[in-house]
Design brief:
- The structure holds 2 protein chains of 2 kinds.
- Chain A is built from no helices and 12 strands.
- By secondary structure, chain A is an all-beta fold.
- In chain A, strand 5 and strand 6 form a beta hairpin.
- In chain B, the strands form 2 sheets. In chain B, strands 2, 4, 5, 6, 9, 10 and 11 form a 7-stranded mixed sheet that branches.
- Chain B is mainly beta.
- In chain B, 0% of the residues lie in helices and 50% in strands.
- The chains are: A mainly beta, B mainly beta.
- Chains A and B meet through strand 5, strand 6, strand 10 and strand 11 of A and strand 5 of B.
Chain lengths: 110, 112
């Protein structure tokens, strides 16, 4: 069975500070992994994806994520957060069937 | 390319009534998904189709929910009879082989 865990339900950071959102997965092989963002009242937008190869992937809006097989993790990072990054972030595993994490709500303090 | 189309965008019904949602995926995408997103929660997969066949419907409440994908293109999700707890946004998504999900804008259901 496959699963995705986002340990942090809610994170608050100051504007300009760095950000890391955690994602742990359970799957027997290397899965396809994605990060999506959902702003209030908006649809789901793809930030970045990992299929294979380079374990550090770059996405839109200055986000990046690192795949670590040994830790079964795919954490999302951004060096400097902007107020517009406040949203819900979902880690998704797709290995034939898709599984969403429960999401992390990001609040940005001015 | 055109995105995933869903309708209606909003629907308000009373409990025990029925409702149907329609989804047209991106052309050429073999896989189609229906998710239920309750306020404050992440999307929950209800059913996943691969062309005409069902890949996963383990979380679909089959006593009241049904879905079909005729000819491997459009899909319809039906709820009959609706309960209060069915109030949610119903998201349709499609994907190519690589599994990247492309979402529609969603259909917001309110059950009174």
């Amino acid at each position: 069975a496959q699963s995705v865990t986002q340990p942090d339900i809610h994170i608050t950071v100051s504007e300009g500070a760095s950000l890391e959102l955690r994602c742990n997965y359970s799957y027997g092989a290397t899965p396809y992994l994605f990060w999506y963002v959902q702003s209030p009242g908006q649809g789901l937008q793809l930030l970045l994806k990992y299929f294979s190869g380079d374990t550090l992937v770059q996405g839109i809006k200055g986000f990046e994520a690192e795949f670590k097989r040994s830790q079964s993790s795919f954490n999302l990072r951004k060096p400097s957060v902007h107020w517009s990054d406040a949203a819900e972030y979902f880690c998704v595993l797709n290995a034939g069937k898709s599984t969403f994490g429960d999401g992390t709500t990001l609040t940005v303090k001015p | 390319e055109a995105g995933v189309a869903q309708s209606p965008r909003y629907k308000i019904i009373e409990k025990r009534q029925s409702v149907a949602f329609w989804c047209n995926p991106i052309s050429g995408h073999a896989t189609l998904y229906w998710y239920q997103q309750i306020l404050g929660q992440g999307p929950k997969l209800l059913i996943q189709f691969q062309n005409n066949g069902v890949v996963d419907d383990s979380q679909l409440p089959k006593d009241r929910f049904s879905a079909e994908r005729l000819k491997g293109v459009d899909s319809t999700l039906k709820i009959q009879p609706a309960k209060l707890e069915d109030s949610a946004v119903y998201l349709c998504a499609s994907s190519r082989v690589d599994g990247e999900l492309f979402f529609g804008e969603g259909s917001r259901l309110t059950v009174l």
